[in-house]
Amino acid sequence: MPLIVMCGYPCSGKTRRAEELKVYFEQNCDRKVHIVGDGALHAEKNSVYADSQKEKNARASLKAEVERKVNKDHIVILDSLNYIKGYRYELFCLIKHAQTPHCLVYCLTSDEVSSTWNASRDAAEQYNQDIFDALVLRFEAPDSRNRWDSPLFTVLKDDTLPYEAISDALFKRKAPPPNQSTQSQPLSSTNFLYELDKITQDVLMAIFNAQKTSVPGDLISVPGATEKIEITRSVNMAELRKLRRQFISYTKMHPTENTGHISNMFVQYLNKSLH
Known about the structure:
Elements: E1 3-8, H1 14-28, E2 32-37, H2 45-49, H3 52-69, E3 74-79, H4 85-98, E4 102-107, H5 111-119, H6 129-138, E5 152-155, H7 163-171, H8 190-210, E6 219-220, E7 229-230, H9 237-253, H10 262-273
């Protein structure tokens, strides 16, 4: 069943809107509604958002929880900032793989209004001002022209949610078709695993060797890929190996039909992960 992705500044009303949607769908359709939110992480949010690695881990945990709960019977609402365009794209890939529709609900407020709402919270629930300002500064607003941000419902603070339009987007629209990067294939071929290991290792060595003669900002060509890698900083082999392991783990679960696509997929993964 569908995924509803909430999006907005800190303290922009996302949780209130998520609860309103939950009540509406529970009253108007015979579906169980799950809200997956930051509260489920049992972590102090100022601590999480002050540390990029903790934040990355938190996003991964939320995505994993969404993946566990998305099925043919339930509606899942992801109640978090979801302020990074690349992360919203990952969620889009997830729903393509699950072959279920999704939509984005953008709680649009000014930073002044959100800051006021933040200050009115209990001290234990507030964002530190430095953290709040940094999150607002880094916020990447959704754009309905992007397929991962569409359909997009923008809601102002005094608006009533467009319940029927959201319901139509979820239940009267076909799921996006899976593609080669999201559709699972049976891992019966040992050749696929061999090619995955060999190709990713070749890409790593190409990057490592190219860095000896390149400078940050150069585009690096790698074997078998039409796309190039943009390295904006020096990357050591330990970091590259870690990213390779993560990519291999994901690709084993979601194999591509054509091993010729592995190089480009790995390049795309590295370009997103290294920025």
